[in-house]
Amino acid sequence: MSTVSKNSAENLEIQARLDRKAARKNVFDMVIPYVGLIFCLVFFSIVTNGLFLSSKNLMNMIEQCFTLVIIAVGASFVYAQGNMDFSIGSACGVAQMVGGLLLLKLNFPIYIVIPVMILVPVASCLLVSLISAVFHVPVFIGSMCIRSLLAGLLTIGVAKAELIIPISDYPVLSNDAVKIITLIAVIGIGMYFFHFHRVGKWAKLIGGNQVTAAQAGVRVKNQIFLAYAILGACVGITAVFTMFRTGTVSAQSGSGIEFSMMLAIVLGGFPMSGGEKSRMVSAIVGAVTVTMLTNGLALWGIDPNIIGGIKGVIFVVIIALTYDRSAGKLVS
Amino acid sequence: MKQLGKKLFGILKTMLLPVVVYLLFGLLSGGRTFNERAVLTALRTTVQPAIICYALLLGMSTGVMNFSAGAVVCCGSIIGIGLSNMLGWGLPGFCFLAIAVALLCNTLFGLLYNWLRVPGMVLSLGMLLFFEALPRMFFPGGGKMTQADTFLSRSPACFWIMGITAAVFYVLYNLTPFGHNLRAVGSNQSVALAAGLNLDKIKLLNSVVGGLFLGIAAILYMSSQGSLFCPSSMSSMMVMMDAFMGVFLGMLLSRWADPSIAVFCGVLTMKVMSAGFIAVGLPQNWKDVVTGFFMLVVMAVSANATLPAKMKADRKFAEEAEKEYRRAISA
Predict the structure, then answer these.
(1) Do B283 and A156 touch (CB under 8 A)?
(2) With contacts defined as CB-CB under 8 Å, which chain A residues touch B63?
(3) To the nearest whole percent, how much of chain B has pLDDT over 90?
(4) CA distance B103 to chain A (A)
(5) B118 and A305 in contact by Cβ < 8 A?
(6) Cβ of B116 and A323 within 8 Å?
(7) Residues in chain B within 8 Å Cβ distance of A306
(8) B129 to chain A: which residues are within 8 Å by CB?
(9) Given an 8 Å threshold on Cβ–Cβ distance, is B133 in contact with A312?
(10) B74-100 pLDDT per residue, tens
């Protein structure tokens, strides 16, 4: 009898120790993205002699942030399901190309061009989800194929010359107030659907366990399509504002967004495998940190092509710090 | 004897795919590709991606998809030629250094993979960006090879290299404990671990051997291009795109022939196809679109390859169950 009591006391102690450890890890995972954000702010302010915090650069960063934060809102739904999309950069570029061609070559009115620009990435994201959900092609590889396909289309579209958009004809789309209202609206709607609506809850449930989600009555494939459609719509909105900010569409348009997004997800502490710990604010914090990192390194005088390498190293380090290693040696 | 005949028949079946594709595009282009030069070009351009394929196949045998392979090839080419030119070591020096750099890069990947225990696909993405930036740190202008040294990527040298590499791959993959361990880990990691295999050692060795193949590919890549700019913004992915498709097609074909032959035929099919599209009048710009589309088709077919067999088995099972049911009712 006494042995049993001793064993159960030991078990309780072990359980309490494990709970404390898990709680510590939770706090660590929650705090580290904000520490990273503050570190970037302080570090780049020092190394750039305050230039990083100048009003001009802050405005510049808000412009850069706008793109990534809006995509982060859409990406939260996809990443919460444990999926990803590696074609969003090319989709953004193709949307700009289609918009530019409609506007310049076919003289379509802007109220038709904008919805078409939003629909292009929606279609491409739906294609990625279709390939993954219906044809069982791993989403990472499927989206890589779509990326190659879209990058080719973009190259063909701007092969003769870059498209120069007459941005002065559309002052509304480069107006800061419009951008801020759009940003707040997208974040607000995204937050509501992610945290208070069944779409977000089901996305996290699918990320946690797809079989359980299906057994609980969730139409998993439909929810996957919906999440990708939301991401596509966010990429489309970004494409519209980016085209009217830069004023040109080239073969490089949209390039690098996909990796920046992935980095944002990792830096923000958003779990790569999705599930119940997914929080939209993590993706947004990650997006802000990535923007600071890119801007700060450039301002510090680092070669833009080396910045890619630095981002790669940071990506590996953060993954190493935060990845769940419960699989032990059986990782592949 | 019967076994040998079966093997030869399998190889013939595998080789039939590029031949059929070649004949199809030859007919569609009005016989424009029916000449010795077109055949030789297709074979020659297959060599370098096929060697990258071997490296990718080794990784994929253990379930690791390495997206940084293209960046490792670029790294080996640019740093190898840069150092060789700087030290005045000539072509032998370049070959040695290209292989050494690729070996180091892939070994670093393997070490980090074992140490960090994160999925290879995710890790390779971060490493891709790092390896792309690496040559720019030392040789920002890229690398340049003298015209006289570019013979390695031309006939007949490239075919000798291909033959030797394929033979090495065949021996390593089929006739050594390393190859058997690799396939054991690939088919079931848990069982392999329980059987006493040292997963970390096998995976690290796999990365080292993969690096050797990527180093050989780096030599051929530099030789075929003559001069190279440093890659950026994941442009190195394009270096491995043909190999990437070839490896999936090769895996489909490997049910009939050894992977060393199957992946070569897979890459050759893709090369014949892209040359065929140009021959039928498709602009060069469309290459990426066609490549992406075919890769998608190949992936979809590859992912669902067992579906017809499964459906057939299900149907048979249903028929038997129906028969059993009727028999029970009548009794």
Answers:
(1) yes
(2) 332
(3) 38
(4) 19
(5) no
(6) yes
(7) 133, 136-137
(8) 259, 308-309, 311-312, 315
(9) yes
(10) 999 999 999 999 999 999 999 999 999
- Given CATH 1.10.3470, say whether it is the number of domain A32-324: yes
- Residue pLDDT, tens place only, B268-300: 988 888 888 888 887 777 877 877 787 788 778
- The amino acid present at A170, given as its one-letter code, is Y
3 state SS of B31: coil
Cβ contacts of B190 on chain A, cutoff 8 Å:
330
Residue B314: C-alpha distances to residues A72, B321, B328 (Å): 43, 10, 21
Distance in angstroms (rounded) separating the CA atoms of residues A21 and A222 = 38
Q: Give the CATH number of domain B2-29+38-282.
A: 1.10.3470
- DSSP code of residue A56: H
Say if A54 is an interface residue toward chain B (CB within 8 Å): no
**Cβ(B50)–Cβ(B267) under 8 Å?**
yes
Contact status of A329 with chain B (Cβ, < 8 Å)? yes
Select from A22, A3, A36, A6 the least CA-distant residue to A263: A36
User: Using the beta-carbon criterion (under 8 Å), do A312 and B283 form an inter-chain contact?
Assistant: no
Phi, then psi, of A163 in degrees rounded to 5: -90, 125
Domain boundaries, chain A: 32-324
CB of A175 within 8 Å of any CB in chain B?
A: no
Q: What is the residue extent of each domain of chain B?
A: 2-29+38-282, 285-331
Own/partner pairs, B300-308, CB within 8 angstroms, 24+ separation: B300/A131, B300/A135, B300/A137, B301/B252, B302/B248, B302/B249, B302/B251, B302/B252, B303/A135, B303/A136, B303/A137, B303/A138, B304/A135, B304/A136, B305/B252
Q: Cβ A320–B116 below 8 Å, yes or no?
A: yes
Q: How many residues does chain B have?
A: 331
Across the interface, do B117 and A151 touch by the CB < 8 Å criterion? no
Averaged over successive runs of 10 residues, the pLDDT of chain A (332 residues) comes to 64 86 80 86 89 88 89 94 90 94 90 94 94 85 85 85 84 86 94 94 92 92 95 95 89 85 86 86 91 89 83 84 65 60
Strands (E), chain A: 163-164, 248-249
> Distance (Å) from the C-alpha of residue A252 to the closest C-alpha of chain B?
9
Looking only at the bridges linking them, the beta strands covering B227-228 and A163-164 are unpaired
| A84 and B CB contact within 8 Å | no
The distance of B30 to chain A (nearest Cα, Å) reads 26
Q: Which residues touch B307 (CB under 8 Å, ≥6 apart)?
A: none
Q: Are B263 and B50 in contact (CB under 8 A)?
A: yes
| Contact check, Cβ <8 Å, A309/B129 | yes
Beta-carbon-side half-sphere exposure of residue B134 (alpha carbons within 13 Å) = 26
CA distances from A56 to A48, A53, A109 (A): 14, 8, 33
Closest residue in A to B199 (Cα) is A329
How far is B170 from B54, CA to CA, in rounded Å? 10
Tokens of B23: 């004949």
* ipTM above 0.85 for this complex: no
Contact yes or no for B301/B83 (Cβ under 8 A):
no
Q: In the block, which residue shows the tokens 């006289």? A: B148
A61 Cβ neighbours under 8 A, 6+ residues apart: A291, A292, A295
